[in-house]
């Protein structure tokens, strides 16, 4: 009879291979479908989108998909290297010899894993930013700015990540069999705290924010928020153009710290009515309580995740099945190993349910669009969406199956058809 560890190894390997095959199939479908429709602008957009813009979006989509295939293969190789080929086990043993057991060794394991993983993925990050995005005119980041951001992100990750990791590791060792419940509470509190402090303390480390100073636009936006019963701490413009030509607008913060942020690239591309319509769409998410629903879902899923981690962290087959020899000495706990193995294994199995949250997200986008059309001009929202799709080089002809599996936002054709019907 096969051991539990062998069964888990086979299940993990089967899920990994199946996931890779599905991802490869979806990506190649997307490439073929977009390439097949590259030669002509869809009839619904023929009067508003030029052939050159349509072909640029097609080429950008295909280039990203092909790059994604290479990145996907490398990611799978790294995952196998960390798990079944013994990379994480070797790293853990080396740190045990050097540092002994205890909290310092466990934090060192987490930090070393993050640093090594980041370095191994660095070539792909650089290629995407300075070759792929550069090729299509989107990258505005200099090497100096990229390096500055990398240093800030690393220091901030250590400053924020290590204390919460230490707290969770301590709870795993000191809070008894229900440690996972206490750890979940600490994790949720940490995330809520981040939502509060991010707009004021973290985001300004990377971007410059200044109050919206266009009086006409400010008056329209303020009137819209008042009409919708929404209060924000301020309206800000962010220097997104220092890093990318992509445009966006978003709400950030939580409770009294909420603020509205416009990319400077967005304000350059849209007129006042179109900006108002985009903001109304974002307000629609709040009116339909999408943000609260997503928070509740995150709370529930993370609770289930911590409960599952609480169980598998006590099972020898979980470690052995993923290529790691668990520590047998009480002085050298397995808690950091359990965290890392869990983070590596869960995405392999959860990939197959990805279409469910994507479908729910598309439903929320339709609802937000409908709210925006009710509060502002549907023509303005349609025009804004078309400009954003064009300026961001989003393809107008994605593969339908690829959309159902991955897209968190509906394609332009579906969104505009819904708005026209409304």
TrEMBL record:
Is Metal-binding there in the keyword field?
yes
Where along this sequence does the record place binding of Zn(2+)? 281, 285, 365
**For this protein, what does the record note about how its cofactor is bound?**
Binds 1 zinc ion per subunit.
In terms of one coarse class, where is the protein primarily found?
endoplasmic reticulum
As cofactor, the record names: Zn(2+)
Q: Where is the CAAX prenyl protease 1 N-terminal domain?
A: 30-208
Query: GO annotations under biological process?
Result: CAAX-box protein processing
The alphabetical list of record keywords is: Endoplasmic reticulum, Hydrolase, Membrane, Metal-binding, Metalloprotease, Protease, Transmembrane, Transmembrane helix, Zinc
User: Which positions are catalytic residues?
Assistant: 282, 369
Positions of the Peptidase M48 domain: 212-419
Alphabetically, the GO molecular function entries are: metal ion binding; metalloendopeptidase activity
InterPro entries in UniProt:
CAXX_Prtase_1, Peptidase_M48, Peptidase_M48_N
* Domain of life assignment: Bacteria
Could you tell me where this protein is found in the cell?
A: Endoplasmic reticulum membrane
Q: Which residues cross the membrane?
A: 6-26, 69-88, 108-130, 150-173, 179-201, 295-317, 337-356
- Keyword Repeat annotated: no
Give the bilayer topology. Answer: Multi-pass membrane protein
User: Which EC number(s) does the record attach to this protein?
Assistant: 3.4.24.84
- Name the PANTHER family on file: CAAX PRENYL PROTEASE 1
Assigned protein family: Belongs to the peptidase M48 family.
Q: By what name is this protein known?
A: STE24 endopeptidase
Q: Which organism is it from?
A: Variovorax boronicumulans
């Amino acid at each position: 009879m096969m051991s539990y560890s062998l069964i888990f190894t086979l299940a993990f390997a089967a899920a990994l291979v199946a996931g890779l095959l599905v991802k490869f199939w979806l990506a190649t479908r997307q490439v073929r479908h977009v390439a097949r429709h590259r030669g002509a602008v869809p009839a619904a957009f023929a009067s508003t989108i030029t052939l050159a813009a349509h072909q640029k979006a097609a080429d950008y989509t295909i280039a990203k998909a092909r790059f994604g295939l290479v990145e996907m293969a490398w990611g799978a190789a790294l995952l196998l290297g960390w798990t079944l080929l013994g990379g994480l086990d070797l790293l853990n043993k080396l740190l045990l010899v050097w540092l002994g057991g205890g909290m310092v060794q466990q934090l060192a394991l987490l930090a070393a894993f993050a640093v090594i993983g980041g370095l191994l993925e660095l070539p792909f990050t650089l290629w995407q930013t300075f070759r792929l995005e550069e090729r299509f005119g989107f990258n505005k980041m200099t090497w100096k700015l990229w390096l500055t951001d990398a240093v800030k992100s690393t220091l901030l990750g250590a400053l924020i990540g290590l204390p919460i990791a230490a707290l969770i590791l301590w709870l795993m060792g000191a809070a008894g069999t229900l440690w996972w419940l206490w750890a979940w509470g600490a994790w949720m509190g940490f995330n809520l705290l981040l939502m509060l402090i991010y707009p004021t303390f973290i985001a300004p480390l990377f971007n410059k924010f200044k109050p919206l100073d266009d009086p006409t636009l400010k008056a329209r936006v303020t009137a819209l928020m008042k009409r919708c019963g929404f209060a924000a701490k301020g309206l800000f413009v962010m220097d997104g153009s220092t890093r990318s030509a992509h445009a966006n607008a978003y709400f950030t913060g939580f409770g009294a710290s909420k603020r509205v942020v416009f990319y400077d690239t967005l304000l350059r591309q849209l007129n006042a009515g179109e900006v108002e319509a985009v903001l109304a769409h974002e307000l629609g998410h709040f009116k339909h309580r999408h943000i609260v629903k997503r928070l509740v879902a995150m709370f529930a899923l993370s609770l289930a995740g911590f409960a599952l981690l609480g169980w598998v962290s006590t099972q020898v087959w979980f470690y052995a099945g993923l290529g790691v020899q668990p520590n047998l000495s009480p002085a050298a706990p397995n808690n950091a190993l359990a965290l890392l193995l869990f983070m590596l294994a869960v995405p392999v199995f959860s990939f197959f349910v990805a279409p469910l949250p994507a479908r729910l997200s598309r439903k929320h986008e339709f609802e937000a669009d409908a709210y925006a059309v009710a509060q502002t001009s549907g023509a303005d929202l349609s025009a804004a969406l078309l400009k954003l799709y064009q300026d961001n080089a989003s393809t107008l002809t994605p593969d339908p199956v690829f959309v159902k599996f991955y897209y968190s936002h509906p394609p332009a054709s579906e969104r505009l058809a819904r708005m026209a019907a409304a």
